[in-house]
Amino acid sequence: MNISMRIVPKKIERYCRDNTTPESPVLRELVDETYAKTAFPQMQVGHLEGAFLRMLIRLIGAKRVLELGTFTGYSSLVMAEALPEDGKLITCDIDQQVTEIAKKYWSLSPHAKKIELKLGHALETLKTIEGPFDMVFIDADKGNYVNYWESCVPKTCSSGLLVADNVLWGGGVLDPEDETDRAILEFNRHVYNDERVEVVMLPIRDGLTLAWKF
Ligand SMILES: C[S@@+](CC[C@H](N)C(=O)[O-])C[C@H]1O[C@@H](n2cnc3c(N)ncnc32)[C@H](O)[C@@H]1O
Q: Of 57, 76, 135, 176, which is most buried with the most CB atoms under 10 A?
């Protein structure tokens, strides 16, 4: 499945973006460098989804956040912007090179002190991280989404939120052709059948699942 396939028409998405609070200047610069220096810059959540994540942090009053999939640090920083002064976001990635860009831009933000990066395979890192977290954002390798889910649900507090990105995988879930299509399809069924959570799947960007833990 072509993951660049758009779920929401381009013009509608642009209109939504244009009516969303602008990105901070640091986030804008981070986007520019990501597009200039990385092969798949569209992996970052970007303005609209980023603003939505930041809004979720504010709405649930999150203080402790866990993220799987840092990349160049956009989603980490946009979420950190909404955390209180004593808030904390732990973010996990396996790629040292891309996270150097993340560190560079975080350091230009007053919110950098809230972010801690953990390098390594997220499944290994998760064994060393203790909850509870108010919100978990899953956005690392898609083949491990079910494993990440099973590791993260117990680390999420009651009334906390788990959020998973790319749950539509460019529409690949409707007519699965490859391994990643099937992995996301399996993940979506797994979450839907999990009685520990209440779920809503939204067609934001490439699909975003929100799961509220009872
Ligand atoms: C979609 S990107 C994350 C985008 C990021 N949330 C943002 O908005 O900029 C996925 C990231 O997962 C990382 N990743 C892939 N496999 C991983 C693994 N096994 N453990 C940890 N991170 C992994 C990749 O290096 C990549 O940076």
A: 76
